[in-house]
Amino acid sequence: MASLLYNQFKADVGQGKYAWQTSSVGIKATLVSGYVPAASHLYASAISGYELSGGGFSGLYSGSIRLALVSTFVSTNQGLLVGSAGRAEFGASATTWSAISAGMASAVVLLCESAVGVTNNGNALLVAYIDTGGFPVTTNGGDRLGLAA
Questions:
Q1: Cα separation of 120 and 124, whole Å?
Q2: Which of 48, 59, 107, 137 is most deeply buried (CB count within 10 A of its CB)?
Q3: What would the DSSP string read from start to end of 94-145?
Q4: Which has the higher per-residue pLDDT, 15 or 143?
Q5: What is the pTM of this model?
């Protein structure tokens, strides 16, 4: 499966509902395994049962496997490579799950869990599915980098 942005998040950004660089948006990253994404999936309830847990990490709403993104930014790629020029790129500082031992992660999913009005998986908006940059990876008790800008 290729990485993707979920449709509703793209629409909401276009309508000004989310400002990626604002900490109040509450974007979090979680590790998943076995989840088959679809751009039409809306909420974190779609990843229920697929989040890693174990080794001191728990999934689901407000679970410790979900780490907040910090130092988020948006840049414009003006590169000369075919297919890479003229696009907006969303990024954040590296996110690390420290001393995690919870099985194999096939991807990282970004979701909006901490925004105003979000109270559970049923209304935590899915943002992106990322399966590039070293996935799949087996967690083994060491630090695992799941997302880097």
A1: 6
A2: 107
A3: -EEETT---SEE-EEEEEE-SSTT--SGGG-EEEEEE--SS-SEE--SS-EE
A4: 15
A5: 0.84
* Spatial contact of 44 and 113, defined as CB atoms under 8 Å apart: yes
pLDDT at 36 over 50: yes
Phi then psi dihedrals of residue 130, to 5 deg: -130, 115
Q: Give the count of domains, the chain.
A: 1
Closest CA to 51 of 64, 41, 38, 42: 64
CA distance 125 to 79: 31
Domain limits for position 37:
4-147
Q: Is it the case that residue 23 has pLDDT exceeding 70?
A: no
Q: Measured on CA atoms in the order 32, 35, 39, 43, is the torsion positive or negative?
A: negative
- Read off the pLDDT band of 149 (50, 70, 90): very low
pLDDT band at 68 (very low <50, low <70, confident <90, very high): confident
Query: Mapped to the 3 state alphabet, what secondary structure does 51-102 carry?
Result: ECCECCECCCCCCCCCEECCCCEEEEECCCCCCCCCEEEEECCCEEECCCCC
With CA atoms as reference, report the closest residue to 67 among 149, 141, 145.
Answer: 145
